[in-house]
Each structure stands twice: as structure tokens, then as C-alpha cells.
Predict the 3D structure of the following.
Amino acid sequence: MTNWENTNRRLWEQFLVVATKIRYFEEAVRELIQQGKLAGLVHLSIGQEAIAAGVCQALRPDDTIASTHRGHGHIIAKGADLSRMFAELLGRESGYCRGRGGSMHIADLSLGILGANGIVAGGIPLAVGAAYAHQRQATDRVSVAFFGDGAVNQGAFHESLNLAAVWQLPAIFVCENNGHADSVAQSRHQRQLQISLRAQGYGISGLTIDGNDTLAVYQAASQAVERARKGNGPTLIECLTYRHYSHQGAQPNPLGSRPVDGRINPDPLSQLAEQFDYLHPPGSERRSALQAEIKAEIQQAISVAETAVDPSPDQILSGVYGARIKPPSPPKPGDRRLTMAAAIEEALIQVMEADDRISYVGEDLEVKTAPKGYPKGRVRDTPISEAAMVGLGTGAALAGERPVVDIMSADFSTIAMDQIVNQAAKIRFMLGGQIDVPLVIRIHIGGTENTAAQHSQSLEAWFTHVPGLTVVYPATPYQAKGMFLTALADPNPVIFLESRQMTAITGPVPTEMYQLPMGRASILRAGEELTIIAIGPLIQPALAAAKSLEESDGISLEVIDPVCLQPLDTKGLASSVRKTGRLIIVHQAVIFGGLGAEIASQIGEQCFDHLRAPIVRLGAPFAPPPFAPVLEKEYQPSQPSIMAAVRKLLAQ
């Protein structure tokens, strides 16, 4: 037992109050579950109170934490309002997330709570991102990631620790090792049982402590916080503890029924009571009074929550997206010509000079950007860790930054899909629309460079299917600069797709900064007989086909670029089809399940009476992108195949 006799009595009372409040809250939740009043998944932290109480007492209000599916204790210890917590668990509008998040997603940015997380290890990269923001903002704030022993088997854990170590971020990693990942004993899912030893592999401090001893936790956390505030990098703290109930729900696991590798598991509240009584004679009377106050507070919070109103069903879309900006009229393209790549670089440099919150992170960037005039220190090379990169960007966005994350290939985005789909895209909605996630993810997409199946896929349809994401796919340098600047000003996570085939195409681009509206298609060539909706690199073959057919056959084709794939300008696209009565949709992606199918469906619903022929889709066959040049040439639609499809459709 630690030397608690010398501990400040006021601090010890804070330990007791916080830990008791967590225990009574969780016991009340258990009763609500048994009464059938709580729906969904609930994970109780009874038995682990000392960790939340000890760590959070070592933090300041402006420090940040990222929690887990078993996160009620962390959130209470950081100062959350109990009535709003109960309201969220009951699915009420007055809950922290307006009933959108539930037990596993409570957050309060005003208290530095980035959010609890239903994905094992999902919150660790977010905490690293917040630590990055704190470092960039030249504060001495720290960021804490809580997670269980099962999370250390996830790639996100390893990527995050490595990145935090390399950049010496003010991050503290707190592993609540209760000896079980769900119901699987630690000895069955890890060979090395001392998790803190993993810190050595990343060159950071690591220690294992008794997680049921609140003072031991507090002292270890205080040392880690001091180290981080001084710029000496992260710490991994392994807290050995025990949970008294099943993984989820309210089924008890009495002491001894779940062996935890021979570990002794005293109840942290019993230790606190004994130590409090020693320091506060007559302690039992004072302790009883505090416990009675906390019980009354819990009951009052439940009463308030139970009388709160349910969310209105007509508000189900509320909070998915933040308010879009309405940019002023952009300048004319002018005569100055830039490549697509140069237009995007110019936009990024200009906006970084205008906004200190913007930084640019990714793999192999610093050498490439150094000669091009980017603001010094604002471009950072990351390890090859796509999940950590996107999580870093998301966490930094939550903490007040506007990061740009570069992913070399759409194929590599698959490694980061949890952070893109389950974190960046959903956080705003899950937290009741109370926050923005201003993040831009640049993804280089598509093929025709003989880079084969793992570097050449067109996966845009995946991203458009995820509520919360904005997906932009410009096809001209003018669009690229304007849409990139719009993306950087948007309050939502934006997937900014850049076709490898189009990086070198040139076009007119104004020198000044300008923005183009989200969700507005662009008519690149007006026509009367047939509409071609082309996406990304298929714009140029479509325009060439339209010009050739007009010259050779006198056919008048209208070519439209959606520009923004989510939100999609279905109104503008439908307007063209109503005029021409015929539609061909062309994209580089595989036809089956591609975005062309969604466009065809929507046009079919809106323009059925105007269609003179079936809608035609052109795209890649149902096979991965091939390597051989002769095969790759046939893999995507071309000018000849578009022309053949036009002639066939007009002949019907």
C-alpha cells in the first residue's frame, strides 16, 4: 500500500467522492437495466473506479481524454453532469448526445472529453490527435487515452504509440488491465502479460501499477502528466484491476468466479473507505454523510432524466453534417494555366499562410514539399500508419485544428477505414451535432500507371455510402483549387479524391483564393440529344467523344461532371436528363455497386417519364485492376467505348 498518510486530506476526499459517485452511478445503471428501462449495450466499470479517479484528479479541466465502451467512470471523473449522462443512457433529447450516442459515445468537449468509443482501441488515435493539437498550439495541455488490455492487440494501439513517441507528443496511455478482453482471459490472447513492457519498443516510459490503489494511480499519472507538460513525451501506464460484472449488461461476476492470472483484486472503494476513515477522524461519520449526498445526487439525476422528452423522429437527420459555407461568386478561370497537382498545392499553401490551424501530415511529404514554399514546420512526415494518421487528424480537428491528411493511394485507405468510417464520419452525429470535425483527407485514386490491383482501385462509392462524409472528385485544375479551398473551410470531414491520371492535366486557374459550392454539378459541354455523366478521369474521354461525335455524326451531347459525389447534385443531373431524354454514366470504378448504379436509380425515379431509352452504365469489369498494359488499357472505359455506347443508345 502506498504512503497515503502523507496525502493531502482534501485530495483524499476528492478521491473518495469521485470513486463513490462512479460506483453509485454504475449501480443505479445496473438497476435500470434490471428494470428494463435501459436499451442497448451498457458496460459497467464497477471495480475499476480507482483508475478514473486517480488519473483524472491529476489532470486540469483543459486537458483532454478519450474513453472506451466502458467509459462512464472516466467521464464522471472529468466532471460530467450526471443528469445529462442518465438522460443519454435513457435516449432522451437532453442527454449529452441528444439520444444519438448512448452509453458508449458520451462526450463533452467543454470538459475536454473527446468521447467514449464503441470500437476497441478506436479512441487511442483520437487522443494522439488531440495531443498533436496541444503541441501545435504551444500549450502544456496533455491528452489521455483510456483502453483495456484487449486493445493492445489492435493495430491502432501500436500505430498510435509509435507516432506519439516519434513526435514526442504530450500523450498518456492508460491501460485498464482487468485481465479479460470480453470474456477471454489475458493469458489466452497475449503471450507477454506485462503490457507496460511494450513501451520499451517505442522508446517511451512504461510502468505497471496496482490499479485498485487510487493514490498509486494518481502518483503515476501525475508523474506522466508532468513529463508530458515539459515536452518529454508520452507514457504508458498499465493499471492492474478487476471488473465485478460481465463484459456487458448487469450479470455479476463474484470475486473468484473469473480467475485473473492469480491476481489479488481488493475492492478499490473498500481501500478508499479505510484510508479515508484514518485521515478524517471520525471518518465513518463524514464518509457516511458524503455517501448520502452522492446517493441523493444520483436519485435526483435519474428523476430529471426520466422526465426528459424523447428526441423527435423528424429530427433523425439532425447532426449528420455541419452547416455548409455559402461561398461568394468565384472569379473567372482566366488565362494562367496550372496542372491539377499545382493548383491543389497553390490552394494548400495559400490557405496555410492564412490560417495557422492548418497543418499537412502524411507519408513522405517533407522532402517533396520543402522547395515549394509551404510554411515552415507545418508539413510533417508520419510513419507508414494510415489508421494513426487519420485518427491523428480527427482528434486534432476535435481539439481545434484543421488538419489535412494525405493518403498515397485509395487502396491504403482500407487500413484506415475504422478511423474514417467509425470515427471521423460518425462523431458529429453520435455526439448530438455539438461538434465539428473539420478534416480533409486527400486520397490519390485510380490507376492506369501499371501499378496493379493494390494501388489502382477506384473506391469512391465506398465513401459516398457513409453518412457524415463529404466526397469531392474534381476533374479540372480550376475545380481542384476552388473545391480544395472549400473543403478546408467546411466543418465536416471531406474525402478529397485526386485521380492519378489527371495530376498533369492543365487548365486555367486564378491566382487569388476562391471557393466553389459543395453539391453543384458542372456542365462542361452543353448538348441536346444525350447526357453523359462522367466521373473523375473519365471526364476527358467523355469530352473527346462528344467532340468527335459532333464532328463526325452531328450528334449533340451534354457532358456533366458531378464534381461533388456526396452531396450529389441529383437535381442538376436530372435537369439535364429531362432535356435530352437519354443518359450514359461513365466511371473508372467497377460497374457492379459503383456510384453509377446510385445515379441511375435516382435519375430513373425522377426522370422516368422523360427517358426515351434505358440508362447505360460504363465502368470496369468485375475484376481487380490488372498489371499488364494491354489488360489495363481495356480495364476502364475509353473514348472509343463511349462513342460506341452513344451510337448504340441513340439507335434504340
User: Anything to note?
Assistant: Residues 160 and 388 are 5 Å apart (CA to CA).
